[in-house]
Structures are given as structure tokens and as C-alpha cells.
From TrEMBL, chain B:
PANTHER family per record: BLR6398 PROTEIN (PTHR30614:SF34), MEMBRANE COMPONENT OF AMINO ACID ABC TRANSPORTER (PTHR30614)
Membrane topology recorded in Swiss-Prot or TrEMBL: Multi-pass membrane protein
Domain ABC transmembrane type-1, residue spans: 17-205
Compartments where found: Cell inner membrane; Cell membrane
Family: Belongs to the binding-protein-dependent transport system permease family. HisMQ subfamily.
Presence of the UniProt keyword Iron in the record: no
Organism: Sinorhizobium numidicum
Transmembrane spans: 20-43, 55-79, 85-105, 142-164, 184-202
Keywords in alphabetical order: Cell membrane, Membrane, Transmembrane, Transmembrane helix, Transport
Record's protein name: Amino acid ABC transporter permease
Automatic annotation (TrEMBL), chains C, E:
Keywords for the protein's UniProt record, in alphabetical order: Amino-acid transport, ATP-binding, Cell membrane, Membrane, Nucleotide-binding, Transport
Pfam families referenced in this protein's UniProt entry, alphabetically: ABC_tran
Lineage, opening ranks: Bacteria, Pseudomonadati, Pseudomonadota, Alphaproteobacteria, Hyphomicrobiales
InterPro entries: AAA+_ATPase (IPR003593), ABC_ATPase_HisP-typ (IPR030679), ABC_transporter-like_ATP-bd (IPR003439), ABC_transporter-like_CS (IPR017871), MetN_ABC_transporter-like (IPR050086), P-loop_NTPase (IPR027417)
Name the UniProt record assigns to this protein: Amino acid ABC transporter ATP-binding protein
Organism: Sinorhizobium numidicum
Entry's family note: Belongs to the ABC transporter superfamily.
Automatic annotation (TrEMBL), chain D:
Alphabetic keyword roster: Cell membrane, Membrane, Transmembrane, Transmembrane helix, Transport
SUPFAM superfamilies noted in UniProt: MetI-like (SSF161098)
Top-level taxonomy: Bacteria, Pseudomonadati, Pseudomonadota, Alphaproteobacteria, Hyphomicrobiales
Localization per Swiss-Prot or TrEMBL: Cell inner membrane; Cell membrane
CDD domains: TM_PBP2
Descriptive protein name: Amino acid ABC transporter permease
Membrane topology field: Multi-pass membrane protein
Organism encoding this protein: Sinorhizobium numidicum
Annotated transmembrane regions: 20-45, 57-80, 190-217
Domain ABC transmembrane type-1 as annotated: residue spans: 21-209
């Protein structure tokens, strides 16, 4: 069983993003840092094991789990029924509001107004699935391999708008990029969950316990303050 | 927020280049070993072994390296084999390089005059002895230039491992681009580093080829 | 029992029958010249005796052992019968000494010093002891062929097969190679040689085999065969020279 | 192994695959025609062209041959916009393939030109053709014929290399596999199907090129 | 004014002066044979006249126009002077007809039907009208050379340069090519030909030029030159035949 393996091994292997600030990005020393990384550390800490961070992309994080390359996916993973068929989800550990972002000059206040526009999104992410549902048929959706691609495409003007998390856009804005992603409208409130392999009740229970405890003792809120600059929403 | 200086960019890219070099070496050496085995199969007396090698080569030369990487990475896991990115990358590159090296070397072995096989046979040597003492030493001379030439393809092939998440030079390039918003500079530098790795190899391959053609001496 | 017994040997390439039933017995110490037009199957016959080609029918035995097509038997055969080629086929990456030592060390597992001693002795025999450390491409054609002979001799065969060993040589170099062969013959080596050197065949050989269209067309002592050819084909062939 | 293979998704997603194949085929068709044309031009420059152009073409060829296609692609798609040159992903992919094949075929074709007997150039000249006319009408076709097998292999290699254009969201065959994988989580099956399709494409492409060769080279011209 | 005026022409390859001051005037309709030892500069002279080599000193003019080393002048010159080579140099990827039509269409912009008509006429003249659709590798050497002549003629030159055009041919094929040249001469074509066919030179040519070490050593009517050579060099050269 997975929990047994982890304790036996003494390390917790966690899939984390490195292209998705503020959840995961790199510092000048190329070391991963962000909300998800802190979360991974917190869980490993509570399990009493070392953490091994495995950088993944949105597109490949679920195969990582399916092929048992990692124990947990803490990679701003959103929940939907398709995914629930193949993996299990913990309780939510972070808030996430998907929205469509674009420079000031692009006018769009609701999905219908994306008609004819070119929108970049990361393939396989919740934004991709949601946007595909709500956008009009003549919206051109460009699906990039990873968030690096999506963000680069937006910043280099290859797409007019991107669909991503509000905090992601905020993190980009904070770095004063050449193109400023401003929120046009939200498409989904899709909190982040930790992904686990199916049928590992012991591990799931343990992780949920840790999340609940972290919510209760304020350590999760501290992470939120550090990376998102706000308190955790109460409904999480 | 942290600011990257150009030096930070370059330093991080160069650090990642270590992986590119290591991965290239592993693929090239591993590919060489497997390629040698393929070569022996390819020129074996048994038809079944020959076709086995032929289909292997056909398969690996006929499908994208990228797909081979994907399958090594995601596929092997399904068989319960735990493959970290570096292992999948190394494995796929080794198998891929072996297909090309095996084929290059077969050409070189076939370029050795038929009389050499006959003379060594009539001296009582077995097939392996013929290969070991007579054919390979001559084929190796012919093989040096194209083999060095192919090493350039290997170095460039390692760039694809970025797509299965292995952080070598190319992946570092995308990650740094996203932390700096300077794609032109970053990809320009990445290209220059690759050029600095590959160009000496291609140049020496050309020089070797010319040398061997001009001085057609055999020792 | 003869040293080499060739019985009813046939060899085809695809539909093309190149040897059409060859019978030939060679006694120890005999020197046999094989002559005949281009394409008559002379090389093919030698190559079959050495196992470089597999025969389609018939049998070949050397010193009582059958020629069979597996590595063990082939190796045993080739230890008894050496072969020398028109194109020398020296190993270009080895020195002259290395050429002569290689198969002793690899095939017979002779230790290096013994192999070297043997190599020097054989090179001396062909008059090339001073070329021990030269590479093949530093030698003239005649010297190359003498090295090839030394290389074959170093394996101490009981018979030697020579396929037009002087045909690739400039005329002035032919005699130095033939001198070596003549000496071998005098020392009692069994020799089967395809040759166009009629004078040499007449002087040195004990028997002459005339091949024609894959058959042994005439056979006999050189005096008979050359002075008194029986068939119009041999007459015509000799008339060409 | 407790993994259950499942290919049911093929029915739902086959339009994606068909579209992916169409784009891959478009990429290589355009890439081959334009890339070989570019290669011919560059080979002409390097073998016979004006000397001021030679170093430029040489630099281009060396640069392309010694950097990965993926990086060339990123450079064109993500990098060039900061110089004000905005290309969509298909244009970028097309250009990257043309530029890539151009450099490789340049070297291959140049070898073919250099193997042309001198007498062919002289015969052209003595019939009052200019150097360029001689190249165009006398030298080119036999040169191409000489190196056609090598050139064909290179085209296949570039076709297989095109798998990375999915990285810039060009919806080629690899994109289709990745897309399906991200929706169905059937990574292994999706990649296997696309690998088989690539293999079939490679075999077909090889045959198509041989057929094209048969059309443009009516005779055993080269020697 | 002569048709071809060669004045004080010198040509060096590096330090090696191959033509050491050649003077030669050719009148319209003349047929000139150039003879001389190998290496005496015969080919070089022809190649200079056709602009395939640039001359180091002196001048060459054809029908009044100077030979200058730029594409426009060279083209004008080569439209006036055709050249035929020892090695035929047919274009292997084109049919016989294509070979003869190509330069008309490319250089003179002759429309295809007119070019084809001309090609057929010229091929008829050399007796190969039935080979219009054959490819060069289906022809014998003599046929190839006749196609080369037709190809040169199709450009309607006022003079033809022939460099040992029968030397690569088997003896039995030489006469079919010479017959064509003989006819051209009879029709008044100006011809400069390097040849080893002394009998042909004697029969057909109006003048013979003997070259020796890069100089015109003797020149004159064939009867004089062959019957009564003035210099020991020419005597020796003719003695060779
Ligand atoms: N490997 C082969 N495959 C097919 N046919 C062959 C092969 N080797 C030889 N032959 C044919 O066998 C016939 C006899 O050839 P062989 O070389 O024995 O003749 P030869 O008497 O040695 O002639 P030469 O004097 O020219 O060496 C020839 O018709 C030849 O074409
Ligand atoms: N491209 C070249 N570079 C250097 N030297 C050359 C070149 N072409 C010819 N030569 C030299 O010029 C000299 C004259 O050569 P040319 O070919 O004109 O002689 P030739 O009279 O035609 O002889 P042949 O009867 O053998 O054809 C020779 O010494 C030759 O070596
Ligand atoms: Mg023979
Ligand atoms: Mg000449």
C-alpha cells in the first residue's frame, strides 16, 4: 500500500509545477518554489519523511501518478468527473479562480465576447476543459503543452488572451511583463486538490487529516498569505 | 519578485548543459554498445537474426524519437517498471541511437573488401575471430567520421527529453524564459550553447572524412 | 589413400552449374597445375576445396577427413589446407609480422614469442625477414604475395591452394614469387595451383589438369599434356599461348 | 501488469487524429517542396554561386545543422515576435521545417553537384549557356538523381522530427496524441496509435519519394 | 579580315607556360588540322578560342568581335563557335532530341516547335534522325559523337572546334564520325580540329598546324607539311606514325 511504501522509503515523491507561479516556479537558482512546494513540504513534514520534488507539466502530471512515478500530485490540480474516474482527490488545499485574461485594449466581459478571438490555454488543465465548454464555437483555442508555452505565447503576442488562474495572472503582472494580463471574467471557481492513486484509502485519509489540521492551526493560511497575499477563503 | 540578470540566465543554462552533456554521453556510449550488438545481428549468418535487426532498425528509424520517449516514459510504467525521467530519456535515446549507429556501422563493415573475409577464413578463423581481428579494425577506421557526425544528432536529440520533463538545456530554456520574459535572449543563448557543443563535432567529422579520403593509407 | 580426394563434385550458382562432376585425387607431395579458359570453374574448384563455397553434390576429403559445412569441421580443414589469392588479401591494418602471426595466435593459440619466431622463419623462407615491421602498403606486389605465402605457411598446412597468384603482378615481379613456389615444391609441399604460366607448369608440376566448362577435360603429366593434347579444346587453348 | 488496454476512445477522437495526420502531411509536403528548393538554391551558392553569398549560406547551414529543431522552432515562434515578426504556429512550423530541411538538403545536393563531370559544365558553356543556365538545365537534374536516396532519407527524418511542432500548439499528429491523452488519460494507447501512424507515414513517404524520383528522372542519368 | 584571328596568345597555369605566343589566322571555310605531341598545348589552344580558358596575354577575335572574359561577350563568341569534345559530353538526362534542342531553347529562346524542327534536321544530317527519342546511354560511341556534332550544329555556328573527337571511339566507329566531318567540310564549314588521324588531315584539311611545346612549330598545306617536314621535331613526330 502507498502509505506503507512511503514510510518504508522515507521519501514522499510529489509532482509539482515549475512553470506556474505562484504555485510553482523557479528562483534564480532554478530551485522550485511556491504554494504547491510549501504544501508538499508541509505534508512530508507531517508524515515524517523527506520530500522529493518532481517537476511536471499540466499535461503529464496525471500519467505520472498513473504510472506510479509519484505518490502525490500537488500541482494546482482541479477536480472534474473525468479525472475522478482515474485518480482520487484529497480535500481542497488552495483556492483557484479560473479566468480569461488579456491586455486592457481587448474588450470581453463574458465568454460570448471571445467570439473570433485567439485564446491560449494549457492543454489538459481545468481551464482547457472549462473554456472548451463555455467559449463560442468560433473562438480559436490554442492548447500548449505546458504553462511555459501558454505564458510565452501570451507574452510574445501569439495569442490575444489566456485562460488561467487569477493568482497566476497576478504573479505574472508582478514581474512587469511586456504584455499585462488583466482579468476579463472568471470562468470557474475550481479549488486545487491533491491527486492520489486510486484505492489508497490509508494515504488519502492521512493526507486529508493533514490538510484539515493545517487549516485548523493556521499553517495553510500562512502559506496562502505568503504566496497569494490573502487569507484562505472560508468556504474552502 | 526576483530579477534574473543575463548572467543568471547564462549560468542556469550552463548548469543545465551539464545534463545535456551527460545525457549525450550516456546515449552515445550506450547506443554504441547496443548498436554493436545490432551490427552483429545485422550481419549474422542466421536470416532470422538479420531480419530481427532489420525490423528493429526500421521501427526506430521510422518513428519519431519524441514518440519513443513518450512510450518509454509513460509506457514502461504500465508494466510496473518505475522509470524516472532521466532513465526513460537515457533508454529511449540509447535505443534510438543504436538503430542509427548499427546501420552506419553495417555500411562500414560492408565496405571492407570481401577478400579480407576470405583470407581470414582460409586461415582457419571463426566468424567472431574474423570480426574481432580483421574486419572491425578496418571498418573502425572508415566508421570514425560518420560516427562522430552522428554524435551531433545525439546531442540535438537530447533536446527532446525536455518534453518528458527532464531538465536539460532546452527545458531550462523554457523555464528560464518564463521566469524572465526574454524569449529572444534565452532561446538565442540556448541555440548558441548547442552550437558550441555540436559545431566542433561536425567540424571534426568533416576533417576526419577529408583526411581519410586524401591519405588513403591503411595504418 | 590420397591426400585430397575430390569425388563427383558439383557446384551450382542458382541455375548455373559451374562444376559438373569433378573427380581428382591428389597424392602427398604432388604439384598440380590447373589450367583452362576464363569461366571454366578453376577458381570455384579451389574455393570448394577450401570450403569458401559449399558444394552442391559429391564429396571432398582432405587427409581422410570429410569436408562438412560447420565451423568446427571447416576450421579443421583449413588448418590442413592453406590458400593464397590473386589479390594477396593481406590485412592492411597489421604489419607484415602481424599478418603472419595473427592466425597462429588467434586460431592455434600459439603464444606470442613462438608465433613471432615462426613468423620470422617463414618470412626468411620467402626472403622478406627484413620487412617484419613494414605495413602491406609499403610493399611491392611481389613482396605482398610472398608475405601471403609466408602467412599461409605459418599455419603449417599439408597442402596449399594457389589461385592465379601471379596474375595481379607486373611481369618483372612474377619470377620472384614463382621462385618461392618452386622452392616449396622442391621441399615436398603439396600444391594445387591455378596458373597461366605454362612454362612454370611444365617445369615444376607433376600433373596438369585442363578444365573446360566445369569438367576436368584432360589430365596428365605436363610433357604429355603440353606436347600431345588429345582434345581440340585443349589444342585451341594451348594455341592461344 | 494490471493495466487494461482500451481503445474505445478511438471512435470519439478519430477526427482529431485525422486532422493531426492532415497537418503533419501538410507540413512535410510544404516543407519538402520548399525545403528542397531552398536546398537547391543554397547548394548552387555553395558550389557555383557568387562568392559574397557563400559565407552567408555557409553560416546558415552550419547554424541550423548544429542546433536542435525544437530550439529553432521556439526561437521562431516565441523569440521572433520580440523583433516584431509574428507568425502563427503553422507558419512557424512550416518555416522551421523549410529552414531545417533547406540546410540539410543543401549539403546533400552540393555533394551531388560536385560529383558532376567537368565536361558537362564545359559542354553547357560551349553551347553558349551561361553558368546559371548550365546549372539549371544540365547539371541540376543528374545531380539530384545522384543523391535522391540520401535526400529522401533526410525528408523522412525531418517528417519524424516534425513531431515537436505540437510544442507550439500546432495541431499535428503528436498534438492529437497529446490532446487525447490529456482528455482520456490513455497515454500509452494514444502514443502507440500515433507511433504506428508515423511508421506508416514514413513508409508511404519513402515510397512517394521513390515514385517522384521515377517521374523526374526518366533514365539512369547519373554516374 | 580573317574569321578567327589569334594574335600573340599566351596561357600559363601557375608557373607553367603552356601556350608561348600563338599566332594563327583562319579564313572562312578553312579546315585546319592541329597536330602535335601530347602536352604540346593543342587542347589548351582550342579551349582558349572557345573561352573555356582565359588567356594570359594576346588577343583572340572571331568574326571581328574580341574575346573578352564576361558572360555577355563569351555568350556572343560561343554562339559563333561551337565545340565538340573527345568525351562527347552529352546530357545524360535528356533524349537525343532534348540534347539538340536544349541550347536553342535556352540560349536563343527558339520556340519548341522550331527547335524540334532544327533538331530533326541536324540529326538527319548526321544520319541519326531515327534516334530522336533515345537516351545517350542507349547509343554507341560513334552515335554519341554524331549527336554531339548535331547539337553543336543546331546553334548554327560559323566555325567548329573539334578536340580529338574520334580518340575515345573504337576503331570501327571512327569512320562514321569522320564521314560526317568530311561532309561538313565539303559544305564550307570552318573547322579547327585537333586530330591524330593523319590520313584524314591530309585528305580533308586545307592547312595543318604542328604544335610543339606551346608554339606553332610548322604550318602549311598538308602536302607540304607531311611530305616535306622542315624541322626535326615534326619529322620525329610524323615518324611515329
Ligand atoms: N559468386 C558467384 N555467383 C554466381 N556465379 C559465379 C560466382 N562466382 C563464379 N561464378 C560463375 O562461375 C563460373 C566459373 O567461375 P570461376 O571464377 O570458377 O572461373 P575461372 O575458371 O576461375 O575463371 P578466371 O580464369 O576468369 O578466374 C563463371 O561462369 C562465373 O560467372
Ligand atoms: N587545368 C590545367 N591546370 C594545369 N595544367 C594544365 C591544365 N590543363 C592542361 N595543363 C597542362 O598544359 C599542358 C598542355 O596541355 P594540353 O591538354 O593542351 O595538351 P594536348 O596537346 O591537348 O595534349 P593531349 O594530346 O594529351 O590531349 C600540359 O602540360 C598539361 O599538363
Ligand atoms: Mg579464377
Ligand atoms: Mg588534348
Amino acid at each position: 500500500d502507498a502509505l506503507g511504501d512511503i514510510t518504508a522509503r522515507g521519501t514522499l515523491r510529489v509532482a509539482v509545477p515549475q512553470d506556474f507561479p505562484p504555485f510553482g516556479s523557479v528562483g534564480v537558482d532554478m530551485a522550485p518554489m511556491g504554494y504547491d512546494i510549501d504544501m508538499a513540504n508541509l505534508i512530508a513534514d507531517k508524515l515524517g519523511v523527506k520530500v522529493e520534488l518532481v517537476p511536471v507539466t499540466s499535461a503529464n502530471r496525471i500519467p505520472y501518478l498513473q504510472t506510479n512515478k509519484v505518490d502525490l500530485v500537488i500541482s494546482s490540480l482541479g477536480k472534474n468527473p473525468d479525472r475522478e474516474k482515474v485518480i482520487d482527490f484529497s480535500a481542497a488545499y488552495a483556492p483557484f479562480y479560473n479566468g480569461v485574461f488579456a491586455p486592457a485594449e481587448l474588450a470581453a466581459t463574458k465568454p460570448e465576447e471571445l467570439s473570433g478571438k485567439m485564446v491560449g490555454v494549457t492543454r489538459g488543465a481545468v481551464e482547457d476543459l472549462e473554456l472548451t465548454k463555455v467559449a463560442p464555437a468560433d473562438t480559436v483555442i490554442k492548447r500548449y503543452e505546458d504553462n511555459n508555452g501558454t505564458i510565452s505565447a501570451f507574452l510574445s503576442g501569439q495569442v490575444e488572451a489566456v485562460a488561467t488562474g487569477n493568482v497566476v495572472a497576478a504573479a505574472i503582472l508582478a514581474k512587469n511583463p511586456p504584455k499585462r494580463p488583466e482579468l476579463k471574467f472568471l470562468i470557474k471557481n475550481s479549488p486545487c486538490y491533491i491527486g492520489l492513486s486510486k484505492e489508497q484509502p490509508a494515504l488519502l485519509e492521512k493526507v486529508n487529516g493533514i490538510i484539515a489540521a493545517a487549516k485548523a492551526d493556521g499553517s495553510l493560511n500562512a502559506i496562502s498569505q505568503k504566496w497569494l497575499g490573502t487569507d484562505l477563503p472560508t468556504d474552502l | 519578485m526576483i530579477e534574473f540578470t543575463t548572467w543568471d540566465i547564462l549560468r542556469n543554462l550552463l548548469l543545465a548543459t551539464r545534463w545535456t552533456i551527460l545525457l549525450s554521453l550516456v546515449s552515445f556510449v550506450g547506443g554504441g554498445v547496443v548498436g554493436l550488438a545490432l551490427l552483429f545481428l545485422r550481419i549474422s549468418k542466421r536470416k532470422s537474426l538479420r531480419s530481427l535487426a532489420k525490423y528493429y532498425i526500421e521501427l526506430f528509424q521510422g518513428t519519431p524519437l519524441l514518440m519513443q520517449l513518450f512510450i518509454a516514459f509513460f509506457g514502461l510504467g504500465l508494466f510496473g517498471i518505475d522509470v524516472p525521467a532521466w532513465l526513460a530519456a537515457g533508454l529511449a535515446l540509447i535505443l534510438w541511437a543504436a538503430a542509427f549507429l548499427g546501420e552506419i556501422w553495417r555500411g562500414c563493415v560492408e565496405a571492407v573488401a570481401k577478400g579480407q573475409w576470405e583470407a581470414s577464413a582460409s586461415l582457419g578463423m571463426g566468424r567472431l575471430q574474423q570480426m574481432r581481428y580483421v574486419i572491425l579494425p578496418q571498418a573502425m577506421r572508415i566508421a570514425v567520421a560518420p560516427t562522430v557526425g552522428f554524435s551531433v544528432q545525439v546531442v540535438k536529440g537530447t533536446a527532446l527529453t525536455s518534453i518528458i520533463g527532464f531538465v536539460e538545456l532546452s527545458k531550462a530554456g523554457t523555464v528560464v524564459t518564463n521566469a524572465t520574459f526574454q524569449p529572444f535572449t534565452v532561446y538565442g543563448l540556448v541555440a548558441l550553447i548547442y552550437f558550441a557543443l555540436c559545431w566542433p563535432l561536425s567540424k571534426s567529422s568533416q576533417v576526419l572524412e577529408r583526411k581519410l579520403n586524401v591519405a588513403h593509407r591503411n595504418h | 589413400m590420397s591426400l585430397i580426394e575430390i569425388t563427383e563434385v558439383r557446384k551450382s550458382y542458382g541455375m548455373n552449374e559451374v562444376l559438373k562432376g569433378i573427380d581428382l585425387d591428389v597424392e602427398p607431395g604432388e604439384v598440380i597445375a590447373i589450367i583452362g579458359k576464363s569461366g571454366s570453374g578453376k577458381s570455384t574448384l579451389l574455393r570448394c576445396i577450401n570450403g569458401l563455397e559449399t558444394i552442391s553434390k559429391g564429396s571432398i576429403s582432405v587427409a581422410g577427413a570429410q569436408l562438412l559445412d560447420d565451423e568446427v569441421h571447416l576450421k579443421a580443414l583449413r588448418l590442413k589446407v592453406g590458400m593464397i589469392f590473386q589479390q594477396f588479401n593481406l590485412f592492411p591494418h597489421l604489419t607484415v609480422g602481424g599478418n603472419v602471426m595473427l592466425s597462429q595466435m588467434v586460431v592455434k593459440k600459439t603464444p606470442k614469442p613462438a608465433a613471432e619466431e615462426m613468423a620470422r622463419k617463414m618470412l626468411e623462407r620467402v626472403g622478406l625477414e627484413q620487412k617484419f615491421d613494414a605495413y602491406p602498403d609499403e610493399l611491392s606486389g611481389g613482396q605482398k604475395q610472398r608475405v601471403a605465402i609466408a602467412r599461409a605457411l605459418a599455419m603449417q598446412p599439408i597442402a596449399l591452394l594457389c589461385d592465379e597468384i601471379t596474375s595481379a603482378l607486373d611481369p618483372e615481379l612474377v619470377s620472384e614469387v614463382l621462385a618461392v613456389v618452386r622452392e616449396l615444391a622442391a621441399e615436398g609441399m603439396t600444391l594445387l595451383m591455378v596458373t597461366h604460366e605454362m612454362k612454370f607448369a611444365r617445369d615444376v608440376c607433376s600433373r596438369v589438369v585442363f578444365m573446360h566448362q566445369g569438367r576436368v577435360h584432360e589430365i596428365g603429366a605436363p610433357d604429355e599434356v603440353f606436347a600431345n593434347p588429345q582434345t581440340p579444346e585443349l589444342k585451341q587453348f594451348l594455341g592461344m599461348h | 501488469m494490471n493495466y487494461q488496454f482500451e481503445f474505445g476512445w478511438l471512435f470519439e477522437y478519430y477526427p482529431q487524429i485525422v486532422k493531426g495526420i492532415a497537418i503533419t502531411v501538410e507540413l512535410i509536403a510544404v516543407g519538402a517542396v520548399a525545403g528542397i528548393s531552398l536546398g537547391i538554391f543554397c547548394a548552387w551558392v555553395r558550389a557555383l554561386g557568387p562568392s559574397w553569398l557563400k559565407p552567408i549560406v555557409a553560416a546558415y547551414v552550419e547554424l541550423i545543422r548544429n542546433t536542435p529543431f525544437l530550439i529553432q522552432l521556439f526561437f521562431i515562434f516565441f523569440g521572433l515576435p520580440s523583433l516584431g515578426l509574428q507568425l502563427d504556429e503553422l507558419q512557424a512550423a512550416n518555416i522551421a521545417m523549410i529552414v531545417n530541411l533547406g540546410a540539410y538538403s543543401c549539403e546533400i545536393i552540393r555533394a551531388g553537384i560536385q560529383a558532376t563531370p567537368r565536361g558537362q559544365f564545359e559542354a553547357g558553356a560551349s553551347l553558349a549557356m551561361t553558368r546559371f543556365e548550365t546549372f539549371r538545365h544540365v547539371v541540376l537534374v543528374p545531380s539530384l538523381q545522384r543523391i535522391w536516396p540520401a535526400l529522401s532519407s533526410q525528408v523522412v527524418i525531418v517528417m519524424l522530427g516534425s513531431a515537436v511542432v505540437s510544442q507550439i500548439a500546432a495541431e499535428d499528429l503528436t498534438f492529437a496524441a497529446n490532446f487525447i491523452q490529456s482528455r482520456t488519460f490513455r497515454a500509452f494507447e494514444a502514443y502507440m496509435v500515433s507511433t504506428i501512424v508515423y511508421l506508416a507515414l514514413a513508409i508511404l513517404l519513402r515510397q512517394a519519394l521513390a515514385a517522384v524520383g521515377g517521374l523526374i528522372f526518366p533514365r539512369r542519368a547519373a554516374r
